Each structure stands twice: as C-alpha cells, then as structure tokens.
Amino acid sequence: MKSILENRPALAAEVEKVAEVAGYLWQKGWAERNGGNITVNITEYVDDEIKALPAISEVYPIGAELPNLKGCYFYCKGTNMRMRDLARRPMENGSIIRILEDCASYVIIADNVVKPTSELPSHLSVHNYLIGKGSPYKASLHTHPIELVAMSHNPKYLEKDVATKLLWSMIPETKAFCPRGLGIVPYTLPGSVELADATIAELADYDVVMWEKHGVFAVDTDIMQAFDQVDVLNKSALIYIASKSMGFEPEGMSEEQMREMSVAFNLPK
Of 10, 46, 59, 216, which is most buried by a Cβ count within 10 Å? Predict the structure, then answer.
C-alpha cells in the first residue's frame, strides 16, 4: 500500500523526526513498554490531495469540543504501541488523523487504522490552547525521564520554581536551552481531564511540565526541540544526583553567575 508520506518530503521529514526522537526515548530508558506519547500538528504539510482522502476508520469522539482544531491534522503515536517500534516503523505504530467539522471528533486517514493514544484528548486540548494563543508550537511530548521523575518524589522539589532554579544552576546550558524552566503539576490521574487542565495552566509560564511521580510533558516548535528541552533538564538532574551520590551537595552556579549569563544570552531574568 502506498504511504501518505510518499512524494511528500516535508511531511516525511516531520514523521522521521518523530521516529528519531522515539528511538532516543527508548535508548535512554524513558519509554518502557508502551510508555510515553507524541502528537504533532502537521496541518501545514497537508495538501489538497490529503484533504480529499476518505477516512479509513470509524468516527471517534474526542471527549471535548476543541474549536481551534477544526480541520487540523495530527500525527499521533498509537495506543499500546512501543516507542522502540515506532522508531523503526512510524506509520505502522502511529497514524494521521483529521479533526472533523464538529471539533469534537476525528477520523484516521493514513496509513493504517492505528488508534491514537488514550491520552489523545489531553494532547489535543493542549494543541487547542496553543493555537488559541497564537503559539508557533506544533509538537507535544510526554515521556518518563528517570532522574526528573525521581526528584518529583521529594516534596521540596514540587514547590514552585525550586526544581527550576536547582536544575538551571547545575550547568549553564540548561537555562540557555530551557529558559522558561520546569512547571509542576501535583499527582493527578493519568489521562484525566483534570491533568490536562492543570498542564495547560502551567504552560502559560513553562514549556516543560513535571507530572509528580509520573513524567514530563513538553511542547515546542517541533518534536526534536521538545525532546531537547527535556534532555537538558534531565542532564542537570543527573549532575545533581551524581554529586549527591559522591557524598556532597553540589554548589551550583550562583545567582550572580546565572544573572550574568541571562544578560549575555538575552534570556528571561
């Protein structure tokens, strides 16, 4: 069967980025079994031929009305699919969906009837929010970075911006590449409307949000950028934990050093 990606290099490149990131998540141990999810808004790569494609699935309800997504298209990781398999065969372990005119349901249009993640309503709610505020962000990533999740088991790191300031202080690149820091959502049932709402509230101030004892949710212009933000934050967590395991509390960069870097690189104060 001909793939929707054939002769569409820009669309194929976006899906290839998803596959590459999925491989990184598996290699890092952040995507056990079918853990983690990826959803990317690919509407800008959709041509008239794709718009004319018939549905290959029944109509599925989203569970919410999301008016900013009318007529949008998304690549979504499939439910119960493994990141290690998506890395090798993205169109067999994910699918492309079309949001219908009612803004409350969707159909799968390619390549196979791979139903998206059960967390799709949460991801789509975030994309609805991003479009509504005019954000250029097109990708959302949920994954389970080991060291960041470990830190979320300590209540002191769940206080506002405590983890952010600690992680920024471990290595200069962290603030440079994740300048908005790390938002925090107290433990909430995975996949719930409450978790989606709490995440959206944090995304007003942060690009990466920690779900207590669960994982992180990140958004950015594409999936590689979203992955990079999580990667640099978790590197800082690794440095902190390595220092502690060596028997000392890491000094970290001083407030003055971080202010100096913020000015030099034109970062938020």
Answer: 216
- 173, 120: one domain: no
88 is written with which tokens? Answer: 């090798």
Residues 239 and 191 in one domain: yes
Check whether residue 169 and residue 48 sit in a common domain.
no
| Distance set, CA 263 to CA 45, 82, 211 (Å) | 37, 42, 31
Assess whether 14 and 117 both reside in one domain: yes
pLDDT single digits (tens) 30-86? 999 999 999 999 999 999 999 999 999 999 999 999 999 999 999 999 999 999 999
Distance CA(123)–CA(196), nearest Å, equals 8
Is beta strand 182-185 parallel, antiparallel or unpaired with respect to 208-211?
Answer: parallel
**48 prior amide bond cis, ω within 30:** no
Indicate which residue of 101, 119, 194, 202 is catalytic.
119
CATH of the domain at 169: 3.40.225.10
Number of domains within the chain: 2
* Dist. CA 151–CA 54, nearest whole Å: 47
Helices (H), 179-222: 193-202
Q: Is 155 a member of any domain?
A: no
147 is annotated as an active-site residue: no
* 133 and 211 fall within a common domain: no
pLDDT digits (tens, 9 = 90+) for 2-42: 899 999 999 999 999 999 999 999 999 999 999 999 999 99
